């Protein structure tokens, strides 16, 4: 055999041995992980934050707005968006395994049942205006559209429930001369009432439009900065501010448990710029189960038209109007609101013949055993539509 042919055969045999050795090696660890383990799912996108009313005022409507369920709302967990619908039992709505054929006997039917329960927050005072905190459910009678109700499912005295507070400050030209003192009184109120890791508040200033200067937080320093950022000037769009705060801030923001929702309006009540009406603002607050407290900045000693407007808004939602005689009394009004928010009762009942027609139902609660007591609560609620 020629020498060059022997060398060529030896080279070929060495190559085959090398190829066999390569095929016998285990696959690279990285390739195994990529094949047997799916890459971690990307983190969920942050929920869209509703734009302040300054950029998207509510559209005027000829009739009172209905509960917002359109796709432009911020995501709300099912238990928040549909109160009364029990969460699905774990495992009953799991999707089929990937690649498994769809078979009729694999499908699970989810049955949803709406529980018609009305939850009401109310305050009880004696003839001297002092809060009464030691009552039981047997001390009250509930009337739904003037019909007595007996199906009370829950009753408790709420003195420590987490607060969700919206502070709405009139920054129009009409309050310019007393604006600085009102800012400081509002800051002191927030410092006193907001507890870290429990309560949250936000600040909205409104003149011609409404603007969020500080979003939900339990940081009182940030809230104080939000109040100090306000500068007086322009007209007054108070109804827009209330509507926006109730719908886009308090109703759309999910909470892990029960909370107390309240709006505090510091204004002279002379609205001249809003896109929504007074009654539309009231209805939205009622739908969001928000108590509205109004502090008048009119210190003339004469009840003006704006004072009557603020009185109507507060009483329709279960809150109170305050009419300070002098600017220094604004701080006292904030103190009274703070005391009231910690001195309320919560009651839940199931109406006997509730129809899902979206109609407004009047609520009346009477302290039957003690005629000297005064009960204050919201005027009513809107029935579900489905």
Description:
With 386 residues, the protein is α/β, with parallel strands linked by helices. Among the domains are: 78 residues, no CATH class; 180 residues, 3-Layer(aba) Sandwich (Rossmann fold). Helix content is 27%, strand content 22%. The chain has nine helices and 14 strands. It has a six-stranded mixed β-sheet with strand order 7-6-5-8-9-10, with helices on both faces. It has a four-stranded antiparallel β-sheet with strand order 4-11-1-13. Strands 3-2-12-14 form a four-stranded antiparallel β-sheet, with no helix packed on it. A hairpin with a 2-residue loop joins strand 2 and strand 3. Helix 4 runs antiparallel to helix 5 and helix 4 runs parallel beside helix 9. It is globular.
- List low-confidence stretches: 18-41, 46-52, 55-106
How would you sum up the major sheet? 6 strands, mixed
Helix content bin: 25-40%
What is the CATH top level name of the domain at 163-342?
Alpha Beta
> What is the first-to-last residue Cα distance?
96 Å
The H/E string reads HHHEEEEEHEEHHEHEHEHEEEE
What is the CATH superfamily classification of the domain at 163-342? von Willebrand factor, type A domain
**Mean pLDDT, rounded to whole units?**
77
What is the CA-atom radius of gyration, in angstroms? 31 Å
Strand order of the largest sheet: 7-6-5-8-9-10
Q: Report the CATH architecture of the domain at 163-342.
A: 3-Layer(aba) Sandwich
Global outline: globular
